[in-house]
Amino acid sequence: MNRIQIPPVVKNLLIINVLFFAATYVMQSKGIQLAFYLGAFYYDSPLFRIWQPITYMFMHGGFTHILFNMFALYMFGGILESRWGGKRFLNFYLITGLGALALQLLVQSVEVYNITGSLMNHGAVTVDLANGMAGANLAGITQEQSNTLLEIYTAPMVGASGAIFGLLVAFGMLYPNVELYIMFIPVPVKAKYIIPVYILIELFLGVARFQGDSIAHYAHLGGALLGFILVKLWKDKNTYYDYYE
Questions:
Q1: Are the CB atoms for 172 and 192 separated by under 8 Å?
Q2: pLDDT tens-digit profile of 141-159?
Q3: Cα 30 from Cα 147, distance rounded (Å)
């Protein structure tokens, strides 16, 4: 893998993500939370903006978050872009990122409907961003349900993780026998084994919903699902980089 230089689309994605990350901290020092403008909110939230389904992919919640995502983009994205070309790779990256958000919004829609009986609550959940206040003005719901609504309506989704999961799935499908070194596992594991296990762990964590877990696991699964579908639709054959097998 060290014989592959960083191709242009991956290089530009790395630069854009780092610039957004730096801008987040610069604006935060000025009292502006950039995630509230560029992160992705539930479509019925008063904080939702039309550009957020794209910009959320370039926002990250912390150094560890962006470090792991950019490392995966560099490691797997470079190989896939060299195989597909820049245009197809960028399409893949953006589509899987949008698919990640779509599945997350679908899950949130089900949660909102189960609590309120409607997908659109017409201002029942209010947000005062200037004063840092929010409230769920609905009768007949529990405090736990109110907290769930507030989290859905006021917590932005950020990060390239959905697109990264798409890249992982594509890599596992196209290069199943490549051996990967995984943290805390002392021996290399083939991609066709470790990546499906990783997806199953995400599914378990998404269903289990442990308290305090703020990770959008269904977004990861959405990116993985779109990645799987795209590789199948493209009917890509392993004609390049056979030395990875």
A1: yes
A2: 777 877 788 888 888 999 9
A3: 29
**CB distance 157 to 216 below 8 Å:** yes
Does residue 177 sit in helix, strand or coil?
A: coil
| Structure-block tokens of residue 56 | 């959320």
What b/e sequence results for 71-80 when a residue is b if at least 16 CB atoms lie within 10 Å of its CB, and e otherwise? ebbbbbbbbb
Tens-digit pLDDT profile for residues 99-117? 999 999 999 999 888 888 7
Torsion of CA 139, 144, 149, 151, to 10 degrees: 150
Write down the CATH superfamily of domain 8-244: Rhomboid-like (1.20.1540.10)
Residue 14: its H or E element: helix 8-29
The pTM assigned to this predicted structure is: 0.85
Domain locations along the chain:
8-244
